[in-house]
Every structure is written in structure tokens, then in C-alpha cells.
Amino acid sequence: MLRHMPQGRSVSPGYTVVYPNREKVASKTVRLIVFVLLIISAVLMFAITIGGWSKLAGLKPGDFIWALAYPIIAFYIMSRWARGLLPIAAALAILVLMTAVVAGTGSSGTNWFDRDTFGFAHAHSLFGGTGLSPGTLGTLTVLLIPVQVLLILFAMYGIAQGWDVEVEVPIDEAKRRGYRVSGGPPAQPARA
Questions:
Q1: Does the residue 140 lie in any domain?
Q2: Are the beta carbons of 101 and 41 closer than 8 angstroms?
Q3: Ramachandran region, residue 178 (left: φ > 0; alpha: ψ -120 to 50; beta: rest)
């Protein structure tokens, strides 16, 4: 069926695969910044969703999906250098940015700050009782804007760093660089 597909990674005997771009301080810093921005975004989105539950208009499931997706993406980026999730994080950040700009600036006709006047009821939280004040919800929404812009920029910068570049090096060289190499026999090339 798929005869021309490789059966697995083929590594020369006595060699192992390393990721030289992951060793760079700049790559480690960008990964940490993306992780922190994703967590901050999730916290802000959870606070807005839970604190303004009764006044959210139709995006309640979307807010929870975004707020749950961000920590999952952050985990995989931080623990497994999942470079493939960076464009997904940037795309989600663009969607959240557009929503936050509309909700924070009032370009749709009203915003959270407009609800802080006479005649508007306070939002109720998801768990009942009084939610966050309109001013607090507006501030959190506006804070979400620069966080998403930074997330987009750093995710794009992380993509350009090439975290997935692989190089075959001797096992001794990999150990000297600090990689954990299995103590067993060197990897054998895959047989066709």
C-alpha cells in the first residue's frame, strides 16, 4: 500500500538525534514566554467568563474551549517543545484578539465600561451571586488585547527558531551536550 513511506527513524549505529536549536538560550526564553502568555490568557478568559457569566452573549462555550485549550497547548509547548502548536496558538490568539477588541473598545455598540452606569444590572457569576463589576470586566478584557498581541508575536518568533531541526551526532557528543541517551546498544537503522 504505502511502500515508499519510511518505516521509522533510521539512525546510524553509534549516533543519536539531537535538536541543536532547542539548546539556544533564545529558544528556551521564547518557549517560556509563550508558556506564560498562554497561562495569563487562560486566567484572564476564565475570570471574564466566570465573573461575567450572566452578561456574556452567546460565546460561553467558546470561552471555555479557548480557556481550556490554552493551558493544554502551553503544557505541550513547555514539556515537549511542540513547535506545531505554535501556529495553532497564534491563530487562536488572533480570534481572541478580535473578540477582545470588539468587547473592550465598544466597536459593536457597547462595551463592559458602558454597563457601569445607572440602569444596568451587575453581572452574575457562573456559580450564582454577584459577579465582577463592569469596570473590572472591562479592564480584564482590555488587558487581554496586549497579551494576545504578544502571544501572536512570540509564537511566530518561536516558529522561525526551528525547534524541530534534527541533527545526527555521535552518542558521546550528545552526552557531552547534556542529552539523555539510553544506555542500551546504539540505534540500528530501520530495515526495508
A1: yes
A2: no
A3: left
**Cβ neighbours, 10 Å, residue 49:** 20
pTM (2 d.p.): 0.82
| Residue 130 included in any domain | yes
Q: Which contiguous run of DSSP H or E holds residue 18?
A: strand 15-18
Q: Which of the four pLDDT bands, split at 50, 70 and 90, describes residue 3?
A: low
Chain centroid to Cα 147, Å, comes to 12
In a domain, 93, yes or no: yes
Residue 79 reports pLDDT greater than 80: yes
Query: What's the total number of domains in the chain?
Result: 1
184: Cβ contacts below 8 Å, ≥ 6 apart:
none
Task: Identify whether 120 is part of a domain.
Answer: yes
The per-residue pLDDT for range 47-73, each reduced to its tens digit, is 988 888 777 767 778 788 889 999 999
